[in-house]
Specification:
Helix content: 25-40%
Structural class: alpha/beta
CATH class: Alpha Beta
Distance between the termini: 17 Å
Strand content: 5-15%
Radius of gyration: 22 Å
Oligomer: single chain
Bound molecules: zinc ion
Shape: globular
Largest sheet: 5 strands, parallel
CATH topology: TIM Barrel
Length: 486
Amino acid sequence: MVKKFLGILSLTLTCTLLGVVNRLESAEAAACDPTACQPPKCFCPSVNPPGGLPLEKTPQFFLLTFDDSVQEGTLKGKSILICMKNPNGCPIRATYYVSIQYTDFSLVTQWYAAGNEVADHTMTHPQDPFDDEIIGCKKSLNAFAGIPNGKIAGWRSPFLNWQPKTFDVIAQQGILYDSSTTALTDDATWPYTMDYGLYNDCWKGFCDTTIHPGLFEIPMAAIIDDKGTPHLMDPHLDGTPDVVKGWLQDNFLRHAKQGKTPFGLFLHPAHLNQIPGVPLAPGATDPAKNLQMLEEFLDWAVAQPDTWFVTSQQLLEWMKNPVPADQLKDFAPFSCQVPKIGKEICNGLDDDGNGQVDEGLVQNCNFNTVVWNTCYGCPSENPSLANPVPKGGDRFRVPTTCDSVWWDPIANQCLCQDANCAYTDLSKPVGNAGDNSTNAGGSNKGTNNGQPNENKKSGASSITSSNTMTLIPGFIIASIFMQWIF
Ligand SMILES: [Zn+2]
């Protein structure tokens, strides 16, 4: 009850505050000088498509994202959602912001191998993540799900509780974009770089405490209902299915008219399924009905003209090279070539075509209170904040010279034989200065992954009074959605 009251109060405050913000922002938009800030390195916030592309030649992008731990039950909901195709015949793509606690690593491997994006959402989903949460998540995803470090390029703050110091850490750790900030209508821009700080979700136009040249911000545009109330994550929980489907369609069409700014649907997969053994709350909609409504909405959206469901990284790739919609079928970053390996290896794919993925090859790691599967060998203990990559295991981790879809972690072999599939991870090694734990291939044994003393908190900058004001919208928004996030 208290939570509900706080939610309503916060929502009212948020609308009021953001209404003020939007007026101020339009006055400050000139702070980003488009003659000095030039793509592909620098993008000013804008509601107009990049590259001067006319609206009729601009695709309508759809960002479908999922947050928190990846588990078998939650993946079921996503599988139903993502069986649709983009205009080039490839399955639609989505981004998963993964928190490590309770995650089954083998499912992350499968999600990535199917062409989707894996992004960093901390180890333990705290309110106020220090750098060890951000670094540990990247390391664990690399070690036990086989995601190349250079492909973990995105970040979302738990509870959307972004803070200027968070951007400092992600920039240091080679992360290319944040997607934690909220937007309403006139500040729902195309992604932009923080060369001039944040544009949306601030109390005063650009947040001058968040200047990070080259670091992208992908604003989370809210769904506005028929009463003008914004809904951000899991909008299907805020009304009856038929009514919510109407808002979703109206908002999608609004984006299509307003510069074709990317439309987003931001979900917690856990809320797509009823928790086994837990009865529905009085008045709550049956999750199956919500899921069906979302499927209908996605089916409708994918059929709209020039609509593409893309990962966040694919969206940024397109912004750097904004080819017209009628040429997108040949746009290489949107292709979906699947490795043809001919024998089953533990890479998250059904390599032998018998309908099963990695059959007989994943290892089941049982730590009594936590059980998960992996292709990359069970460590001696469950990954933790203090030790995100514990030693142990008899498999070979993905080296920096091979993408994991081509990597056989049992034979210690990269099966990519030509330039088309060649991959070299040139990303900045993750970790603190002097922390030499980035995987360079080879057996788990003998590497210095997971030394117990690594990843000590390294003096993330403290919040100063001058930037405290910029935090408040994040906190307010977070309080609305906390009740939906576990
Ligand atoms: Zn979360």
